């Protein structure tokens, strides 16, 4: 029987509101799946969630909640929407760690609601860089972030690292696992892959930086030799405009914002953050904690809906109406 695990993210963010907004969808999924919410007790789920403390209690389809006991009752009472703290950061991280433990023991796909790296670090979790990196460490594998949309997807070659360190991390990419991740990406196999340059105008033949010639071109050659139809390095400022955008189904971006800014502008809340390199599916909404609107009833659950579609096997279909003719 399939299991869906959901982490609460930062309880002071929009996560609790997303769960409330998705009540009907979650209830529908619970007729076929065991849906288990791992939470700290700050904003406990509604009455239709059955609180459990033993995984054997989740063997049948249904809505279940699992409390981490990471916070004291005093700490729980002190938290409120829109006011993150070291305590809410600890709650978010404990939910993630407990979900990973449960996944290893009982299996299942994973949906992670947004957390704040800043507040997890302030809570004392040294070296925390995000869900993708934590999953790599916990499962002793190389993971890759894929921003998956209805029309096209973005795979950033580096994730949560300072911009000045991007060339260093580009040199450290493990090509065999990277190639395997690209092959496993749920994108159209009938289109070429765009590899974006690091520098403006993809380096202008070495006149604006040497990274394209020294780092990227050898990588592209290796990908091509592995049988992947990769084109580049391409100037990133024009790659996402028409007609280029319709030509490709996957864009390889050198750094986080290079790919995620255009992705979020075009795909909006229809996109999800998907982790490649795991033997189960992990997805997350393509937005953050939104502390500024938390508790105000303004949270949009659209991306969370798509996450639930992914982990329940309902893959998105391209939206032909959005294409430019």
From TrEMBL:
Molecular function GO terms recorded: metal ion binding; NAD binding; oxidoreductase activity
Pfam families on file: PdxA
Signal sequence, start to end: none
Coiled-coil residues: none
Keywords: Metal-binding, NAD, Oxidoreductase
Superkingdom field: Bacteria
Identification of the protein by name: 4-hydroxythreonine-4-phosphate dehydrogenase
């Amino acid at each position: 029987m399939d299991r869906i695990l959901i982490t609460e993210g930062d309880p002071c963010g929009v996560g609790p509101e997303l769960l409330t907004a998705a009540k009907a969808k979650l209830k529908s999924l619970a007729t076929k799946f065991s849906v288990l919410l791992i939470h700290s007790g700050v904003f406990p789920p509604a009455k239709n969630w059955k609180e459990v403390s033993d995984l054997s209690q989740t063997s049948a389809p249904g809505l279940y909640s699992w409390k981490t006991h990471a916070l004291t009752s005093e700490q729980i009472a002190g938290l409120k929407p829109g006011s993150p703290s070291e305590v809410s950061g600890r709650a978010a991280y404990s939910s993630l760690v407990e979900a990973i433990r449960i996944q290893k023991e009982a299996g299942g796909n994973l949906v992670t609601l947004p957390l704040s790296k800043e507040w997890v670090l302030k809570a004392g979790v040294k070296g925390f860089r995000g869900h993708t990196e934590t999953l790599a460490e916990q499962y002793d594998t190389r993971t890759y972030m894929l921003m998956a949309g209805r029309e096209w997807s973005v795979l950033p070659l580096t994730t949560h690292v300072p911009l000045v360190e991007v060339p260093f991390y580009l040199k450290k990419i493990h090509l065999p696992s990277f190639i395997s991740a690209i092959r496993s990406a749920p994108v159209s196999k009938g289109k070429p892959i765009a590899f974006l340059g690091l520098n403006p105008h993809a380096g202008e033949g070495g006149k604006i930086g040497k990274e394209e010639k020294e780092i990227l071109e050898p990588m592209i050659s290796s990908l091509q030799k592995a049988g992947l139809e990769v084109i580049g390095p391409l100037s990133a400022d024009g790659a996402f405009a028409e007609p280029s955008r319709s030509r490709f189904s996957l864009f390889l971006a050198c750094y986080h914002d290079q790919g995620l800014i255009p992705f979020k502008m075009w795909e909006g809340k229809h996109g999800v953050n998907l982790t490649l390199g795991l033997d189960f599916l992990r997805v997350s909404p393509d937005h953050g904690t939104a502390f500024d609107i938390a508790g105000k009833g303004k949270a949009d659950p659209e991306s969370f809906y798509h996450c639930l579609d992914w982990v329940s096997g309902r893959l998105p279909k391209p939206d032909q109406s959005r294409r430019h003719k």
